[in-house]
């Protein structure tokens, strides 16, 4: 049984976070819930946009990388803790041969995003990780990169090459145990307007799609299985934040 205090605490959290209401009803009130609800409010996410600040970002940085499967985007998040805020920039890649078909199936303006510089294309039918690897090297040279967190799935060769060249890569398995503290940190930072992001519309779309897995202890992480549409940018950001929190030095942990 859960204590009354615990129920009150989670009820308050569920009121603030759209995606947690269904979880509260299911686990605390024993109610049947049919529909999935996205995790974060777009209104809250949009309120955190600060492109001018992101353009001037400097300091110790953490990267999170989510490599694409055949259908997904490849996403990279760069996070710089700044006092009680996180400054965040996201970048995305998609294979050129799939651009038109994905635009039709996903019903979002991929080609417009490419033209505006929010989304990069690599030649061929699948994302060429060589371009992504080169970008990681560029960022490692331009910033004081503390760590690069990478989902190890499908990334073994890239991890080995970067580590061999001295890039501080750390594997981050995409489990609730590994990601729950970072997911909660992101949730609170968005609510408290302590994320400052670049306004990337691809990332905004990922945020709008994200639904979370929740365990019996109400820990959560973004779920690619339960979400509709791509969530790769959110996965990359949570991966980066997992390493910020693990390092603690230079990072901020929400109360």
What is the 3D shape?
A: globular
Low-confidence stretches: 249-255
Fraction of helical residues: 40-55%
The class by helix and strand makeup works out as alpha/beta
Largest sheet: 7 strands, mixed
Predict the CATH topology.
Nucleotidyltransferase, domain 5
- Number of DSSP-assigned strands: 9
As a percent range, the share of strand residues is 15-25%
User: Which CATH top level class fits?
Assistant: Alpha Beta
Along the chain, the helix and strand elements come as HHHHEEEHHEHEHEHEHEEH
Output the radius of gyration: 18 Å
Indicate the mean pLDDT.
Answer: 86
Summarize the structure.
The chain has helices spanning 4-16, 18-27, 42-47, 51-55, 99-106, 110-115, 129-142, 156-164, 176-191, 201-209, 232-247, and strands spanning 60-66, 74-82, 85-95, 119-122, 144-150, 169-171, 195-197, 211-214, 220-223. It contains eleven helices and nine strands. It is 44% helix and 20% strand.
Can you describe what's shown?
This protein has 255 residues and is α/β, with parallel strands linked by helices. It has one domain (38-247): Nucleotidyltransferase, domain 5 (2-Layer Sandwich). The chain has eleven helices and nine strands. Strands 1, 2, 3, 4, 5, 6 and 7 form a seven-stranded mixed beta sheet that branches. Helix 1 runs antiparallel to helix 2 (18-27) and helix 9 crosses helix 11.
């Amino acid at each position: 049984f859960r204590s009354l205090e615990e129920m009150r605490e989670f009820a308050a959290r569920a009121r603030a976070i759209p995606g947690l209401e269904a979880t509260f009803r299911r686990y605390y009130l024993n109610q049947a819930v049919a529909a999935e609800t996205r995790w974060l409010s777009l209104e809250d996410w949009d309120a955190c946009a600060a492109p001018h600040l992101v353009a001037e970002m400097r300091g110790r940085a953490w990267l999170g990388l989510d490599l694409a499967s055949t259908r997904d985007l490849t996403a990279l998040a760069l996070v710089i803790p700044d006092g009680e805020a996180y400054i965040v920039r996201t970048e995305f890649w998609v294979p050129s041969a799939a651009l038109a078909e994905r635009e039709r199936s996903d019903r979002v303006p991929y080609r417009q995003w490419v033209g505006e510089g929010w989304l990069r294309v690599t030649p061929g039918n699948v994302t060429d990780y060589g371009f992504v690897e080169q970008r990681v090297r560029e960022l490692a040279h331009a910033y004081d990169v503390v760590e690069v967190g990478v989902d190890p799935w499908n990334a073994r060769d890239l991890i080995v090459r970067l580590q061999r060249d001295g890039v501080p890569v750390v594997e981050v398995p995409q489990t609730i145990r590994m990601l729950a503290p970072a997911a909660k940190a992101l949730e609170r930072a968005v609510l408290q307007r302590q994320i400052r992001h670049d306004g990337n519309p691809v990332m905004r779309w990922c945020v709008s799609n994200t639904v979370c897995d929740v365990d019996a202890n109400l820990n959560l992480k973004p779920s690619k299985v339960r979400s509709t549409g791509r969530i790769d940018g959110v996965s990359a950001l949570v991966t980066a934040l997992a390493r910020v929190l693990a390092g603690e030095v230079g990072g901020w942990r929400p109360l």
